[in-house]
Amino acid sequence: MSSTKKVPSPLVSLLPILILIGMLFATIRTFGSDALNGGSQVSLLTTTAACVFIGVAFYRIPWKDYEIAITNNIAGVSSAIIILLIIGALSGAWMISGVVPTLIYYGMQIIHPDFFLASTCIICALVSIMTGSSWTTIATIGIALLGIGKAQGFEEGWIAGAIISGAYFGDKVSPLSDTTVLAASVTETPLFRHIRYMMITTIPSLVITLVIFTIMGFTYETSGTEQIAEFAASLDAKFHITPWLLVVPVLTGVLIARKIPSIITLFLSTLLAAAFAIIFQSELLHEISGNNNLFEGTMMSLYGSTGLQSDSAMLTELIATRGMAGMMNTIWLILCAMCFGGAMTASGMLGSITSVFVRFMKSTVSVVASTVGSGIFLNLATADQYISIILTGNMFSNIYEKKGYESRLLSRTTEDAVTVTSVLIPWNTCGMTQATILSVSTLTYLPYCFFNLISPLMSILVAATGYKIIKKTVNNPG
Fold first, then answer.
1. CB-based contact 185:402 (threshold 8 Å)
2. What's the rounded Cα separation, in Å, for the pair 474 and 403?
3. Which of 37, 111, 139, 344 is the most buried (most CB within 10 A)?
4. What is the structure's pLDDT at 309?
5. Superkingdom of this entry's organism (predicted)?
């Protein structure tokens, strides 16, 4: 039956996406950055229902086709869901054990007024890599660095640009990042293979960014770094800072280098960090549990939210963790997006839309450029990076396969186009959130987010050179 069913035209196929855009616009306007707490998920399910209705009512596509496609989509991201849950536990363990605070503490020692912008970018990159969250990085250490930079005489647009550039570099390459895991899972690319391949475009983009910030740093008259010293003192007072804690990220890096499966690597890293928390931060575990039960405090830091008080409000916010429970909104969104993607696939609408793109894909550059353009457009249209990543991956996966390109090229291009540009769009959840947190408008910091601006262009440039792009011979290039 599926071989004879009528396929919707590209114009009809755009209807569910237009409905989704309208619902997301209303949802984000109503709930703002809280849209991910349920509003976006309901919008996706409602749009899924609209897609199914069009297919069943006008194209006689049986419900069974939708059920199979949705089930297959969800099964395809099952490992990603497990990874996200482990990442929630790992994030809590790395924070409470003192691993992340130790890295921040030593990282802040290298800052120098003449290199403030470049140092800000590097510090935010390190924190974001360790936490896997650009939002947490910007809302905590980012705010501290913004205050320091303004006190030293830097314009807020430049400071915010350095903060966001570093934070989104870390978010993009961290194995703890939900967007990184999502891009890899949607394109069926092993997580660490995806991250290693991204380095080809990501490292040059960061180097260029740091060169720009370094040059600009010498043009300002700067003052001291008293606030940095105060923040470092607060870290030292709250945590037992010791180089021994660096064993955790070092061993994690060794496991990654040896290409150990991501689930095993993340799980072992979580266990090691939990053990170090018991050894070095027993007082904090007592504070979390409310009594002297180390086991209870350790378990709570892994699965639930924790809040530790300090003499610094910014430090208190930074060291708050969400645990496994904190990943549920992201998992909920992924499941709903998989339902929408499955409905679009079963109805033939996704294939109808991608057939339009195929006409313009004659070379590697045009394939990558089309993916970049589509990803940015979806960021503009859907106002959410998660949905844009899923839709971009679903739309182009068959095209890349038919043309003989590796899935890692699609996963890398998706991140280059979607993850880093979401914060540059004023009405996107990322753009709204960061503008609110930093009290700097999106259009003010946009020209200075060099990493975010360069990354999509670097993706196309590398495609033009053909470096490390392997194309298999296929019988039906399409």
1. no
2. 7
3. 344
4. 81
5. Bacteria
Q: Which two tokens stand for residue 68?
A: 């199979």
Q: What pLDDT digit, counting tens, does each position of 210-254 carry?
A: 999 999 888 766 555 566 677 778 888 889 999 999 898 888 878
The residues that bridge with 321 in the sheet, in sequence order, are 306
Give the C-alpha separation, 203 to 118, whole Å: 15
CA atoms of 184 and 450, how far apart (whole Å) = 24
Q: What is the pLDDT of residues 44-75, one digit of tens each?
A: 899 999 999 999 999 999 999 999 988 987 88
Cβ(36)–Cβ(429) below 8 Å: yes
pLDDT at 451 over 60: yes
State how far the Cα of 207 lies from the Cα of 451, in Å rounded to an integer.
Answer: 9
